[in-house]
Design a protein that fits this description.
Structural class: mainly beta
Helix content: under 10%
Oligomer: single chain
Number of strands: 19
Order of helices and strands: EEEEHEEEEEEEEEEEEEEE
CATH class of the largest domain: Mainly Beta
């Protein structure tokens, strides 16, 4: 978060906002159910906590416009923002959030640009470490409710995009890398083999092959080599299966689905 977006101790990039249960001491009231006022895009979301544990599994939600309450103020949140995604996850039974407002949020979404997520799923920002979001492997450049979009270019989220919220372990080079797993094919013969590649992405979306990642498919698993590749045994029963990649100290991948014929 950095000064260009309200962030964790002014250092972990792009943070902001959401439906939360807060204490009066935190300065934010407990919120009623979010009020949805406009349709938004259908996006994939996942939330990963401080230890690398998945707090909210990958799911598809509708990032509708909504209203959250901070203190005595109702704060409008535009559809297609990362905050709208978090609010949708919460409505679907996901984890609670806590937020602060460093601006003057109100009935206009443009005034919610400085809403700031400082606690999620019971894990609260500490020092330089805290909550971060990414869209398509790139850390956001604005607050999560900023109606100018995650990159500040007036482009809001679009259907089919992925929004990752994760606990950033900040260092001089930014957050730890986030993983992505890519199978060589979207279909595979039952009982055959499948090669996958694991890439780790930095804050700017620059990818590098990741060695030592554990990739799972059905009951099989394998570790990636120096070029980020591993070969897995495909399940013998036809159907749809998920491939996932993890590595200690890095953020787990969104799952990818393959069809076994």
């Amino acid at each position: 978060m950095s000064a260009k977006r309200v962030s964790v101790s002014v250092s972990v990039s792009a943070l902001a906002a959401v439906v939360v249960a807060l204490t009066a001491a935190a300065g934010v009231d407990a919120l009623p159910a979010a009020r949805v006022s406009a349709a938004g895009p259908s996006v994939q979301s996942m939330i990963v906590g401080a230890t690398g544990a998945i707090i909210s599994t990958a799911r598809t939600v509708t990032a509708s416009a909504t209203t959250v309450r901070v203190g005595r103020r109702g704060c409008a949140v535009a559809a297609g923002t990362p905050l709208a995604v978090l609010a949708a996850v919460r409505r679907a039974g996901g984890p609670g959030f806590a937020l602060r407002d460093y601006g003057r949020c109100g009935s206009a979404p443009r005034n919610s640009a400085e809403l700031f997520v400082y606690s999620l799923g019971g894990e609260t920002n500490s020092g330089q470490n805290g909550w971060e979001y990414k869209v398509a492997e790139v850390s956001g450049a604005t607050g999560a409710a900023d109606p100018s979009g995650p990159m500040g270019d007036r482009r809001l989220l679009r259907s089919g995009e992925r929004v990752l919220w994760f606990w950033c372990q900040a260092s001089g080079g930014g957050c730890q890398r986030t993983l992505a797993v890519a199978p060589a094919a979207s279909t595979a013969p039952a009982g055959g083999s499948l090669t996958v590649t694991v890439t780790g992405y930095d804050n700017e979306g620059r990818g590098a092959p990741t060695a030592g990642a554990i990739v799972t498919l059905g009951s099989d698993f394998a570790s990636t080599g120096a070029h980020g590749r591993a070969t897995l045994v495909v399940p013998s029963t036809p159907g749809r299966y998920r491939i996932k990649a993890t590595r200690r100290g890095l953020v787990p991948s969104f799952p990818e689905t393959i069809l076994v014929r």
